[in-house]
Structures are given as C-alpha cells and as structure tokens.
Amino acid sequence: MDYTYGPGRNHLFVPGPVNIPEPVIRAMNRNNEDYRSPAVPALTKTLLEDVKKIFKTTSGTPFLIPTTGTGAWESALTNTLSPGDRIVSFLIGQFSLLWIDQQQRLKFNVDVIESEWGQGANLDILASKLAMDKTHTIKAICIVHNETATGVTNNLAAVRKLLDEFSHPALFLVDGVSSICALDFRMDEWRVDVALTGSQKALSLPTGMGIVCASPKALDASKSAKSVRVFFDWNDYLKFYKLGTYWPYTPSIQLLYGLRAALDLIFEEGLDSVIARHNRLGKATRLAVEAWGLKNCTQKEEWFSDTVTAVIVPPYIDSAEIVRRAWKRYNLSLGLGLNKVAGKVFRIGHLGNLNELQLLACLSGVEMILKDVGYPVKLGSGVAAAAAYLQNTIPLIPSRI
Amino acid sequence: MDYTYGPGRNHLFVPGPVNIPEPVIRAMNRNNEDYRSPAVPALTKTLLEDVKKIFKTTSGTPFLIPTTGTGAWESALTNTLSPGDRIVSFLIGQFSLLWIDQQQRLKFNVDVIESEWGQGANLDILASKLAMDKTHTIKAICIVHNETATGVTNNLAAVRKLLDEFSHPALFLVDGVSSICALDFRMDEWRVDVALTGSQKALSLPTGMGIVCASPKALDASKSAKSVRVFFDWNDYLKFYKLGTYWPYTPSIQLLYGLRAALDLIFEEGLDSVIARHNRLGKATRLAVEAWGLKNCTQKEEWFSDTVTAVIVPPYIDSAEIVRRAWKRYNLSLGLGLNKVAGKVFRIGHLGNLNELQLLACLSGVEMILKDVGYPVKLGSGVAAAAAYLQNTIPLIPSRI
Amino acid sequence: MDYTYGPGRNHLFVPGPVNIPEPVIRAMNRNNEDYRSPAVPALTKTLLEDVKKIFKTTSGTPFLIPTTGTGAWESALTNTLSPGDRIVSFLIGQFSLLWIDQQQRLKFNVDVIESEWGQGANLDILASKLAMDKTHTIKAICIVHNETATGVTNNLAAVRKLLDEFSHPALFLVDGVSSICALDFRMDEWRVDVALTGSQKALSLPTGMGIVCASPKALDASKSAKSVRVFFDWNDYLKFYKLGTYWPYTPSIQLLYGLRAALDLIFEEGLDSVIARHNRLGKATRLAVEAWGLKNCTQKEEWFSDTVTAVIVPPYIDSAEIVRRAWKRYNLSLGLGLNKVAGKVFRIGHLGNLNELQLLACLSGVEMILKDVGYPVKLGSGVAAAAAYLQNTIPLIPSRI
Amino acid sequence: MDYTYGPGRNHLFVPGPVNIPEPVIRAMNRNNEDYRSPAVPALTKTLLEDVKKIFKTTSGTPFLIPTTGTGAWESALTNTLSPGDRIVSFLIGQFSLLWIDQQQRLKFNVDVIESEWGQGANLDILASKLAMDKTHTIKAICIVHNETATGVTNNLAAVRKLLDEFSHPALFLVDGVSSICALDFRMDEWRVDVALTGSQKALSLPTGMGIVCASPKALDASKSAKSVRVFFDWNDYLKFYKLGTYWPYTPSIQLLYGLRAALDLIFEEGLDSVIARHNRLGKATRLAVEAWGLKNCTQKEEWFSDTVTAVIVPPYIDSAEIVRRAWKRYNLSLGLGLNKVAGKVFRIGHLGNLNELQLLACLSGVEMILKDVGYPVKLGSGVAAAAAYLQNTIPLIPSRI
C-alpha cells in the first residue's frame, strides 16, 4: 500500500494538506459512533462554540461542512447570493482564479479585478468601482486572504476601510483557506460576512471539513438568496442547531474528535502565539530565499505571506524538476508552480503544526536540490540566514519552562 | 473528550455509520501527504478501478467525492438533469422523502409515487405512468434501493424490466446508500445510470466519501444537463482523470488509504460472501423479531431488508425509550424511528463489517431492553431463533480452515 | 500480515490477553520519546502513585517492570528470598504449577500443598504446617489468587487469618495476575507482602508490563535476600526513584501512556464498580453453564472465579475441538484446557474491559459450538439464564444518566 | 496527558528510543489477540526466520524476549555461563560499565580491560590475556559493539581474529544494542556466539523486546550452564519452538506485528542500504562537529560510530544545559553525557528510521543552541559541511525512481 516508501519521515512542505500533530492523529484513531446519541451533539456544541475563536468572532455562526475548501466556497456564495448578482472578485493567482471560475459557473455576474501574479488585490480599482456604484449593484466583494499559488497576503482591513468609506453595503466574503489559524484574521473587527477555511490547512487536520462562518448579515442574506443549494444550505444546519441535534446529515465522527484535539492544541499554544510562530517561519523562509540569491514571487513586502513562499527559479531551471527531485531524493514534498507560474516557481508551505527545526530541514533540503539542478547556491547559506533570525526570536516552549 | 465512556465496546447497530474494521482503522492512522506527488494518483487509479466491482459494473465511471450521501444524491441529480425536468420518485420512508425534498429544492418537477411506510415502491403506478408517457417527458426514475428508515428493499430488476417493457429512455438513478456492498446490486445488468453510496455504510469507513458511479448514458447526460453545479460537477473530475492527477481539489488522504483497505477486505471475503453474510444477518434478525412476537415494519417478505430491520413496538411503548435505554444501560446503539414512525419503531442496523456473534449480542440486548420497558418477552427467545438458523448456515472462515 | 482475517470483530474470551479499550489503544498510538526528558518522570510519578490504588495499598511500593507475569513472579521471589529458603506453595492448576516450577528452578525449597484441579488451596494443610513450624523455617507462602487454568479463586483473607493465628512471620506472596483490577484484592488489609499482575490481564493493556507491589516488609527482605538478580532487582529501581528519574533502563513509552489511560478508565468507572461488573459477568457465565447442563471445573461455590470459567465437556467431546471451532467458524477466541484438564475443559475468560452484551455474544457462540460438536444443548438456554440475571442487575452507565 | 506539548514534531535524537516509522505505528495499532490461536505461531515463525537476517546468520537461533536490552544481556550471560566463570569484559563507557556491573552481580569472575572513555576496546591486552590463558580459564569475551555513551565502535572482526590466532574456545558475546540493523554486523562470519539488541534501537520499534541470537555453540553451552534463570531461560523457548507454539509465556501481540512491519521496511530498503544510510548520517554529523570547531569524544577515526556521536563541549559550558535547552526551546531531544563524561559531552543519536533532512534539522538546532549557551559557532557552518557531503552521496529513493 505504501509503495513509495522512503526511510525516515516525509518532510511535508506543500501548502496543504499539512502535517497532523500526533495528538490529533490519536484523537481520530477510533471507530464510528452513532451521531444521534447524546454524545455527538454535546461534542458538536463545544466545537461550534470554540471554532468561532479562530475566526475572532463572537457574533458569527459557524458551519462544519463535510466538504473541502471548494465546497466551502460554494457554500459561502450560494447561501448569500442570487444568480445574476454582481460581485467584485480579485484575480491574483490560481486559487482566486478557481474561485472566480466557480462564481461564474454559479451564474453570478463577476466583475474581476486582475493583478499581475505576485501582486496583491488592486484596491485602487476597488475604490473606483465602489465610488461609481451609487446604486449598490455590487452585492459582494470576494477576496482570497492569502493566495496560496503566489504567496500573497491581501490587506483585509483596507478592504473593510474602503467599504466603510463609501458606506457600501456589499457583503464581504473571504477565502481564509491558507490564512485562518495562521495569519491574523479578525472577522468581527473587519466585519467580514463569510469567512471560510479547510480542515487540512492551518488547523492541521485531514481534508474533509469545510469550516464556514457567517455574520448575522450573511445569515440574513441567506433567507432571500435565490441560488439553488441543498447540500450546502445553511438553513438545514440552522434547523438542526435549533433542535440541538446539530447535523442535517452524517458528520465524520473522526474529524469531530480531531477538530476538538486540534482546537485544544491551538488554544494551549495560544492563537496569537500560533500566529507569531507562522510569522517567524515566514520571515525565516524569506531570509533564506534572499540568501540563496533568489526572488520571492511576491513583489512587495506588504504582501509577503507567512504561510507559503513561492520562490522564483532562474529561467534555465524547471521548477517542477526541483519538486520532483525533492520527493525522489530527499523525501521532501514541495509545492509546484501552478498555471501562469508553472515551471517558474516552486512553493514552500510553512503553515500548520510545524516548528522551526522542521523548517530548517526543508531549507537545507532546498539548498541541496538547488545545487542538484545546477543553481550555484552556497550550501548552508539559507539555513544560516534563517537560523540567525530564529535563534534570536524562538520563545521557550511554555509547558517546558 | 470521551465523556460518555462506558466499559467495554460500544455495540453499534445503527444503520450507519457502522463499525470500522481494525485493518481499516490502521490504514487511516497516518499523516497527511502531498496529493500531487506520484503516490496519490497511483493509489487513486487502483481505487477507481476496484471500486467499480462493488457496483458490479465494468462500463461505469466512478467518482470519489469528499461529501456525504446527501452530497452524492446532489451529484447524481445535478450532473444528469436540468431544472424543470420531470422525474418520477418513490416516497416510501424518511430517506426517500429527504431525497425527494432535495429533488424539489433543486427545481425538478417531481412526480412522487407514495407508498405506505413499510411498503416498497409501487411499481404498478410506475408502469401506468410509463405507459402514459408516450412523449418521454419523464427524464429519470429515482429510487432508493434500500429505505433505511423502514427496512424496505426495492426490486430494482423489476424497475429495469418496466423501463424496458415500455422502451422508456428515462435515466435510472439509484440511491444504494444502505445497499451497495451488502445487498445484491448489479449496475450493468440492471442498466442503472447512476448509483451511489456513502463510505460510512456497508463499506465500513468513516463518513466523508460519497461514491457515485455513472453509466456512459449518464455521462452523456452530464454534457447537456443544465443544473448549476461546481463542487459536484463530474466534468471537473473527468478533466483531472484525463490528466492522470485525478483530483480537482484535495481528497482525504486517510479515506483513500482506508478505502483501499476496505476494498481489500471485501475482496478477500468475496463480494458474494459479503452479500450472503448480510443475508444471514438479516434473516437471523427477522427470526428473532418473530420469536419476540413483534412485527417487522416491512409489510411483505419480498421487501425484507438484509441491512436494517425496523421493529414495531406495541402501542404502549415509546420506541425512543428503547433506544435511549440501549445506550444508557447496555452500551448498545440502536436506530430511532424517524418521522411517521417515530416512537413506533426502533431499528437494528446489521450492515457492514459485522459478524453473527456481534448480532447475537445486539439481539440479547434488545431482549433485555424490551423487558426493561415492560414488554413481556421471553429472554433468550430471539437469540435462540436466530442461533438455530445461524448454526446451520455460518460458513467456516476461509482463511482459517 | 492479517492472513487469518475474518469479518467483524474477534470475540476475545481467553483469560488474557484481553480486549484493549479504544481510549487505551489511542493513548499508545505514538512515537517514542526520550525517557530522560522531564516529561516521562512526571508521567511515571503519577503512575506509581495511582497504580497503588488497584492494589488497595498506601504503604506498598510498586514496580512497573518491562516483562510478563512470569518475570513478575521471578521479581517477587528473587527480591525477597534466598536460595534454599523454605516456601509453602499451593498447586491447584497449571499456573500455580508453573510458578512452583519456577520456585524450584530458582533453588528454593518448595513445600507444595497440592489440591485436586478444580479445588482451591488446601488451607487445612497450611494450618498444620504453620502449627508445626515453631522455628519459622517457612520463609514465604506463595499463592495464586485466581488460578486461571481452572477458574478457582483462593481465599486470601483466610490465609492471612491463619498466618496471624499462628503469629507466623512468613512473607505472603500473591500472584494476582488474573485477579487484580477484577476481583476484590486488598493488599494492605490482608497484609500481602508482594502482589503482582500483568498488563494484559484485567488492566486491559498489551502484554509487556509486570506490575509488582512490595510491602515495607518485603522491601526490608530485599535488602538481605541472596537470590541473584539484576534485571529484576528492586534496588536498581529504588535508586532511580530517589533520583527522580525513575528508570534503571528504558521503559516502553507506549505502555506508560497506555497505563495512564487504563487507570483513568478504571477510576472513572470506579474500582469497586469494576469489581462488581466482573462479579456480574462471572455469575452470568456460571448460570449459562448450568443451563447448558454442563459442569464448572471449579468444585465449590466458594472458589468460583469472576474472571474465568472452566467448563467441563462430556467425555465424548474433545474440548480442544470446541476452541478450534470457535475460532474457525465464529471468530470467537476461547481458552484451551491445559495440562491435566486438556481436552476436558474449555475456558471462558471474562475479565478486563468487557461488558455484558459482549459476554452474551460469547455465550451464544458457545451454545452453537456445543451443538456443532454434538452436545444436545438447547440454543438460547444459556443466554436466557444469563440475561435473566443481568437484566436485573446491570446498572445504568453513570456518564450517560 | 501530553502536558509538555510543543508545536510541531519532536526531533528525537537520543540514541534510543528512536523514531518509529508510521507503517510500524500502524501495524501496532491493534487490539490484543489470543496468542495460542494458529495466527500468532504462524506470524512468529516468519519473524524467527527473518530476524536472523539482521544478524547475518543462518545458523543462529533467535529469541524474542519480552524485556529490554538489560534483560537481553542477562539472557546472554545466564544461558551460557556458570557462576564463577572467568570472563573478559571491556570497559570503555557507561553501557559497558553497566554490563560489567551486571556480570559481577551475576557472580561471574570478571576480568575487566579498561580503556579511557573515548577509546575502543584495548585488544592488545586481550591478546596478552589470551596468550597467557593456555588452560582456557576464560569462558567468554564480552564486548559492546557500539558504546552508546561515547560513540565508539569496536572492531569485532579483530576480536574474532585474536580468538582464532590463539585457538581460544571462549564464547564471543556481543552487545549489539546500538549497532545491529545500523552498523555492519556479521554473526556467522565473525562467529559471534551470542548477539543481542533491543527493539527501540535501530529496529525503530517501541521498547519491550530483547532480541537475542545464539550460535549452535552457545546453545550447547546453555545445556550445561549453571546460572540460575527461569524467565530468561532459552530452554523454555526451545521447548515451545519444538511444539510449534513458540511462546513459553505471553508475548506482546503489538510488538510482534510491529517487528514484522519493521523487518519488512528494512528488507524493502535493503539491509546494506540501511547500513550505508547510517554511514552517511554518521559522517555528516562528524563533518558538522568539525565545522563547529568541536571535538568528537571518540579519539580515533577507526572507532567512529555511525549511530551516535558524542560531542565534547568547551570546559566553560555544561553539556546538560545544551540538552535542556534543546528540549525547552527547540523541541529537540539530545542525549546527555553520562557518568565520567557528564556535563562534558552531549550526544546526537543518528540511528534507526531516519533520513538526512531530519539530521540536518537536528544539526541546525544544535548550532543555535551552541550559540544560545555562549559558544561562538558560525550558524550554518555545520549544516553546510554536512550538506556538502550529503548532496554528493544521498541516493535516489528506489521506490520513487
């Protein structure tokens, strides 16, 4: 079954799915259960309460949907919008592109604001669109918080600020797939209307749970939204929430217990410490890239992502070969360049339950691979740059002081 | 976390989710992996090939969708039909009701053929509808193979026979959620166009994978079907099948390995032996019910289900109290009566990776509970009736001869 | 690897190793750890404190030795006695025989008090030996609390009473392998000097930990005992206890976490509730045996064991065939008859993390097997007798009320 | 339970217990089984046959004893020797010291050949002792193949050569605890009489199985050896080997399946590839130590160990502080300096199921810690030196080519 076995651990540095911590693997190592017994609703109740914390919301209503991020997107859109609705959506990389594709196929009228890959959302254009939209034809702004393909983090506070400036009532829908639980995300403060993530990203669970959180305004919208939906319909969930049985259909028992364990670990570390750790990992990676003499796909510091770094390779190298070699020789899993940047970048995912020495293993591996493929890197240079920063910043592990 | 702990094993006899065998639990006890490495497509390829065997199809195309049975339903409908399409659907219990509800909400024109709960699909009415439908306004027949709420198995061969008799081209869509891998199901022979099941049923996996299989005719239909869909769109899968990377979005690594192990166990036992085992379990249960002097919710033998038995309790007993007591006192999980039969029946699920002695534990528990709640059962009577049958029919375990 | 796979759960009714509860399997599902980090001593400290409770001792000193019950025996003997020491030992079945064999090979002067297999320790002979032993040549009394081969429980309180009556200073060494955590055992009250058990018995862990508890008097004896020992030497443990690092050599990290989980479950249920549960299981089994018209190998009620029942088969039946058939046809694991009772008895182990419905599965299986092998049992008779008793006595599960 | 949780994986670099690979963790994730069923002997048979391969023996007889390395030592000695027997034993570090302590306490007449810690066995003295021993009073030579405290590998071929030169019939007993499955070990070629290891070392299992292999000559010796033993007695095993039931007492079911998986992984990689990998890991570590300007505790290249490196710290640094800091800040587990080298060295274990990037994570961590404690290391220097070597030597993973 494991016919691609290699000795030692796989070094998993794709930007999802990410490493699952042992306590979570343990929590999920279990038989099925009757989800209609009193035990599962009692567990679910704690999950719905606690999962709000990772969105930094008290007023939001979360949904734990047996789906992926793609399904979570669909849930966000179809519950709040009607076919033909005008939405503004930012195209800055492969995942925003896929979301836009979904938006179009779901029959929304998508007003795309495109940026060069490697840049963040163009908020100037948004501003002008909002300014012109006196009649509020724009029903929603859709934005990917962190574009996983290019390692670009968008400024959500700035989006909110613009909406407020123009007193625009558009819904604010955010893909937080590679940000929530890793980057600073403030649903209530930024008045995000729908935020969503997938279990296999910074929560460090297996794939299979789309986590969607809706503001009261989004819930209101769901009452009149005309998009056809059943599986993704929030109202079915809400009906069962009221009954106290919570599930309109069968959840994964294992993922529920896994989520409980994952949240417990995050709260034990402290969400802000988790975010600070991701910042350390991101900075360390960027310092290594710089030391190698390579360029970050992200064009400006303001967009640097703390969860994924897309590294541009010299034109004489095929970045896919780096990824293949990483896997074949070093048991290291890196992310491919996608679509427009295929062959041009490889990606280092540094999110989820990950510590600094794990990252340094990856960076040391990348150095060797760069040399393998003919790039004249100085071995140790990236690790040294990263370590110099990390050695000054890694905190003691609180439980071990 | 396990705050409803009781000593010993939970006896899980709800009709899903069902017991996961140890080898499957083991196979899923793993970290995440990069689903874009060569390993996952190689695994997926074997799964897509082998999963067809449980549908008894060679011409079908399977989809392993990260969803539940409800999502699998939606996938079957939206990929093959367009809003407004007339479909004939049988209402015989809670799950067929829920599917019909979905069909209506997805904007199909649902022509419902209702039976009394406890009866199978009324094929006479189907026949007359087909007879009258000279212009082929009926685009699909939707039928639940095994209605989990009442323990009724419908005769799919007879449905196919009717369609053929009238040379009717309607698509034949089958919910096999509580049948496939347990009851005799023959996709190719019966020319079923879409069949579907959920991982947590007879496959004995955790919840989270909707397994849908489409005939060539269904695939054809998907090219012109106008129902809006993205997450559930087969065409996205087909595109990635062609690329050999298989996944339009992230699958659950754990469920893929789990499915591999589950299929291996089923093939080791032999699919026909698995079906024969379910037949033994079903018959044994029905003999026990008879011995207790209780009535099966299923009104005729031709509809008896080998995967779930709904037992009617005397009017002076609340069947929900039986289920509560089972859990509270005996660590036994039984199924509640749903909707029209709430309070009137309790259900014994006997599907999945389950052997005869496990069933006898359940039956002995039910006897004690019946006595607990005031029904004058003779303790041991049901077990004796079941055992008399089983002792004559259980085969030796082939690997142990 | 699992080349004797059979569908469904194995019904494990040998008197050890017994079923491991899921929370314990989970707790052990982990990588190795540095046992010299602060974490392992901190864990060990809680274990040493809490494991005393299962011996009902506050003054005893426990040792968690990486060994089996046989090693725990050796530890008890070699730490407290010197070669040539006279010890009185009761031979009542295969396990007491094996212990006596060990005692002899360890060069003690073993004064064996033999009983017919099926009877308990002959305390009259002990009394006369004690009476005659004015000079206290007897250094220790060795007794198996529960003889696993015949299902005979000895009366330890009576042994203590005799020792007191004669004011005899002999050490009181008890094999509690199939009793501790299942039968009433009171180390302090009965002034047992060394008691021991194995992890795979009523504690419901994997094999691999011999748990030995020594009274202050036994610890004193260990200072002068001349038996050669190193691996089993308590003094090496005591040295490391003082240092606070606890381990003279590497423990199994997995078993330590497993023991923590096992103790937590036992304390959650309540040790006295655990013992009461075993009493229910024992009585139910004996009622079934009686209903089948078979005889218990244990000759008198006072010796009935609540953890294992040895059932005598009619002379025309080979009990080994029952055990073989149980495994081959019913996925049921029963205990063989050993040595003098080989072919004559089969054994039902009913200890550890086990509930009543699990037992009834076993009993229903035994009934079918008895019929298979030609014994004219009335199917359901044993289950009915057991259930009649159990239905009156099973308590509600406290966490579910 | 995991009250010293830190984010990400623990980097486990003590020289045992070592990392358990996922397939082995999975194989052990199981309930108990009846070890007297046909399944366990069938499994055991394959294990006994295959475990001989890791000793490179065809004539040896292996014993899988539920114990630790300390117990395996005791098994080797007591089965082959009688109290008072003269044995020659080399003292070169803490583990040879502990073995000698055991030898003395087991009442052998131990002729100790001591070397400075950091040096290998002094074979010149052995030669002179053998030369003088015309009457063959020396019954055994006891040697630790790899002294885990100092990282010194002894030359076993040279020992055999000396014995042959003097035609000396002494038994050749080898502690292979931190060598077998990692260093080149040739039982048959070197005519080793007893070799042993522990499951938690290079086999990468949990602690709990002492694996002892006896030559025909050692088995012969066991017939006349007068040392008192029962638990460790090979003859009890041999009796059950003949019966085909294999086990004189209960084995750990989990460790048996774990050993099966561990051997499968080793054979898949190829034992010689495993040894070559350890050589790479050892050399890379030594190159890093050199680059840091630190000294290896091992004084000459001929003794360099490929499984553990003991690094001497400058006199102004307490090596225990390095180990504490590694754990507290970097989630890195290093080995303490023991006894004579306490405070003076820290140890990096690089054995078992471990790959090169894992090692580089450790080395990068050590660099940061060295800086933390005031040693003026150049960050990245050790990693660079190691990587320069590794990048030239790591082979492709055969299953992924």
From TrEMBL, chains A, B, C, D:
N6-(pyridoxal phosphate)lysine: residues bearing it: 201
All residue ranges annotated as the Aminotransferase class V domain in the record: 47-291
Highest rank taxon of the organism: Eukaryota
Entry's Gene Ontology molecular function annotations: alanine-glyoxylate transaminase activity; L-serine-pyruvate transaminase activity
Assigned keywords, A-Z: Aminotransferase, Pyridoxal phosphate, Transferase
GO biological process, one term: glycine biosynthetic process, by transamination of glyoxylate
CDD domains per record: AGAT_like (cd06451)
Gene3D superfamilies: Aspartate Aminotransferase, domain 1, Type I PLP-dependent aspartate aminotransferase-like (Major domain)
Named cofactor requirement(s): pyridoxal 5'-phosphate
Listed GO CC annotations: peroxisome
EC number: 2.6.1.44
InterPro entries found in the cross-reference section: Aminotrans_V_dom, Aminotrans_V_PyrdxlP_BS, PyrdxlP-dep_Trfase, PyrdxlP-dep_Trfase_major, PyrdxlP-dep_Trfase_small, SP_NH2Trfase/AEP_transaminase
Binding site for substrate: 347
UniProt-listed PROSITE patterns: AA_TRANSFER_CLASS_5
EC class: transferase
Similarity comment text for this entry: Belongs to the class-V pyridoxal-phosphate-dependent aminotransferase family.
Protein name per its UniProtKB record: alanine--glyoxylate transaminase
Organism: Apostasia shenzhenica
